[in-house]
Every structure is written in C-alpha cells, then in structure tokens.
Write a structure and sequence with these properties.
Length: 416
C-alpha cells in the first residue's frame, strides 16, 4: 500500500498516468472498466500544471483499503481512496479521487464564493434556488441566465425524454435494447465493455447514464428516443434557449468532431448553419469511432493536448436557471404514475457526501471536460423545503483544478 500511495502522489505531481505502470499496478478487472485513457482524461483538471508538489496530510488504513488526504501547492485538497486485491501482487482494484471535506472559514459568504469561483475560471455562474412551491425562486444568483458549457449534465434532458415516452406508452422501463458497435462512445463506463448484441433494459441504460455518466449508454438512449424528440424535451423542461443545443449532439459525435483528425472537424461545424450541422451528423450515422475497432487507433485520434480545453463551445450549453427549471420538471415527472424511477435513478450517485438527516432526498448530475466543470443538485431539507444548487465554470484556454471547483460549489449547499 505504501508503494502504491507513493506512486499515486508521483502521478499527481507529473499529471500523467504512464500506460506501462498502470498495467503493472492495476487489477485487470479495474482496467476493463477504466482504461488508461479514461484515467488520464480528467487528470489535467484534478492536478493541472502548477499544482505540484502534492503532500500527504492524513493517511487512514483499514485492511486492504486506505483513505489518504493530500494537498496541492495551491492549497486545494482531495481524498484518495485506494483498495488493493487480497492476493499477491496486491494490485489496485479500486481507486476514487474526490474533494476533501473542509470547513468553511468563519464569516464566509455567497459573495465570497462568487469571487473565489471567478479566481478559478474566467466564466462562472452560480444559482441557489428555493423550489419548494415548484418554481425557481432565487436565493442567490451570479450570472443565473448565462448559458455555459455543462458537460454531461445534458443527460438530464435525455432522461426527461425517456420519462416522457414512457408516460406516452411508446417506451417502457423494462424494454430491452441491444448494444451496437456504431453507438459505442469512449471506453470509460460499463456499457462499452459489453458485447454487441448484449441487451440491457432502458432503465439500466438510464441508471448507467446518470449514476456513472456512461457515454455509450447515453448514445444508445439518444438513438432509441430520437435527436429531435430530445430537443423538444429541452423546451418542455423550461430551457430558455434550446436552439443553442440544436442539433442535439450524441457523445461520440462530439468526440468525432473534436478529437478525430478526419473530417468533420470543428471548422466544418462552425461554418455550417443548423441544417448544415444536421447534415454533418447524418453523414456520421452508422459510422463507428475508430478506437472501437482497434484500441491502438485512439493514439492517432488527434489526442495530443487532450488534457487542455478544446472547442468548449462545441458542447451542451445551459444556464443555472435552465438547470433549475430542468430539475423541477424532472421532480414533477416523479409524481406521475410509473415515473418514480426518475427520482431513484438520480439518487444513485449523490455527487457529495451530505448529512442524510438534514438532506433527506438528494438528486445529482455533474459534467466535465478540460476547461468545463458543472454540478447540479435537487435537494430536500428535513423541514420539507426543496432547493436546487447549480454551479458552472468554463475556461476555453486553460484547464483548471476541478476538485478545487467542486469544493467551492459544494460550499453553496452549506451556505443555504
């Protein structure tokens, strides 16, 4: 364990997981779920240049599991949880990196939170809303109507359209759907690892999409539900400018545009109007991203600099108020007969550890890519009040520390 922890600190200092070392240190079952590319993709945000050196503040061991709190040179902290296999050579079979719990300074205010977020990224927005009566009544807003890139939070709109079609009777939670090669996205996630023809229910796809942000699961649902149907779902959910996300991108289409050397490239996208962009996406229909056919091709996929922001306006865009409206809409759906699973799906991963005696119902979705970080919660307090908290940070030029960003947005919950 001591050796593995020391190596993980070195990884944070260098900002890079070495492929050979990863193969040696990680259990094969872990790497089947989380390949090297998926480990390295967020590392530029977790440990950006200038964050080194990292030092250990606390080290707690319990058998084959260690929980280590570390601090960067800039003062940001994270907790590393490492689980080792019980048999020799005791490889890593579990790894979790998350913001370390920190106490708010005495007198800390929401105004200071706005300032601290702006110190991390040049484009920020924050919204805290009381939604007790089904409307988004702002407790605190900073750029509340400013659309910014939101990463995987867009998957809430896919979930909303799935619920809509289940309500209409044109889909069912238990409906089986087969895995298809042309709908595979990036290798991270569970569904990518399944064989072609394997089936999951629509509910299982939705659970993977929301709880672990599985992109391959997401793209299968987008294909099943229909791109334009989800565009309509955005408007139904209360998004003020749904046209910003039209045509609605699947994740593999975003990766194709931004990370493949072959056209279509960002320039093609920027030069096209909405109809032209629909044509671009229609031309990609049925095509398989190269790394599905051969994992070695990922290295040829215009990957250099992938740890830095790249065309973050080719993304999914929303404001804090849009996300509040969406979360309220999803909550309203849960009271419809047959749609309670919407709340259950959103509650699998709460995003942050909260006191469950204070916050009795927690629903969450987050999203990130280099230069983009966003978190959104629907929360119910033990006194019956309901809130939405959402924070967005964008930097189109430089990756930032997403754990420092997460820690700040988490503070918003403590300040309610």
């Amino acid at each position: 364990m001591e050796d593995h922890i020391g190596w993980l600190i070195d990884v944070l200092d260098t900002g890079q997981f070495d492929s050979a070392a990863v193969t040696e240190r990680f259990d094969a079952s872990f790497l089947a779920q989380v390949p090297v590319a998926a480990l390295n993709a967020p590392l530029g945000q977790i440990a950006p240049p200038g964050s080194a050196p990292w030092r250990i503040l606390d080290d707690s061991r319990n058998g084959q599991v260690a929980e280590v709190t570390v601090e960067a040179a800039d003062g940001s902290r994270l907790t590393i949880t490492v689980a080792l296999a019980s048999t020799d050579p005791h490889q890593i079979e579990g790894l979790l990196l998350q913001p370390a719990d920190t106490d708010l300074p005495e007198g800390y205010t929401l105004a200071q939170l706005d300032t601290d977020m702006a110190a991390i990224a040049p484009q920020t927005a924050l919204g805290i809303y009381d939604v007790t009566n089904g409307s988004c009544d702002a407790v605190h807003e900073h750029n509340g109507d400013q659309p910014l890139a939101i990463g995987s939070i867009f998957k809430l709109w896919v979930l909303a359209e799935l619920a809509n079609q289940i309500q209409l009777g044109t889909a069912d939670w238990d409906e089986p759907l087969a895995v298809r090669a042309e709908l595979r996205s990036n290798p991270a996630g569970d569904v990518f690892q399944l064989d072609d023809g394997d089936t999951l229910t629509l509910r299982e796809y939705a659970e993977a999409m929301i709880s672990i942000s599985d992109n391959t699961a997401t793209d299968h649902l987008i294909d099943r539900l229909g791109r334009e149907a989800i565009e309509t779902a955005m408007a139904r959910a209360g998004v003020a400018q749904p046209a910003l996300n039209q045509p609605f991108l699947a994740t593999r289409e975003l990766f194709w545009l931004k990370y493949l050397a072959d056209p279509p490239n960002p320039t093609d996208w920027y030069n096209a109007d909405t109809d032209g962009r629909r044509t671009i996406l229609a031309d990609l229909d049925g095509k398989t991203v190269p790394w599905v056919l051969d994992p070695a091709l990922e290295a040829a996929a215009n990957i250099e600099g992938q740890d830095q922001p790249r065309n973050i306006d080719i993304e999914w865009l929303a404001s804090p108020n849009d996300l509040c409206q969406t979360l309220v809409h999803l909550d309203e759906l849960t009271s419809t007969p047959g749609l309670k699973p919407v709340a259950d799906i959103m509650s699998i991963n709460p995003g942050v550890e909260l006191d469950d005696t204070t916050w009795t119902d927690v629903r969450f979705k987050g999203g990130s890519e280099p230069g983009v970080f966003a978190l959104a919660w629907w929360l119910e307090h033990d006194d019956g009040r309901q809130f939405v908290v959402t924070g967005l940070l964008n930097n189109p030029d430089t990756a930032f520390n997403m754990f420092a960003a997460a820690d700040l947005i988490n503070n918003a919950i403590d300040l309610i």
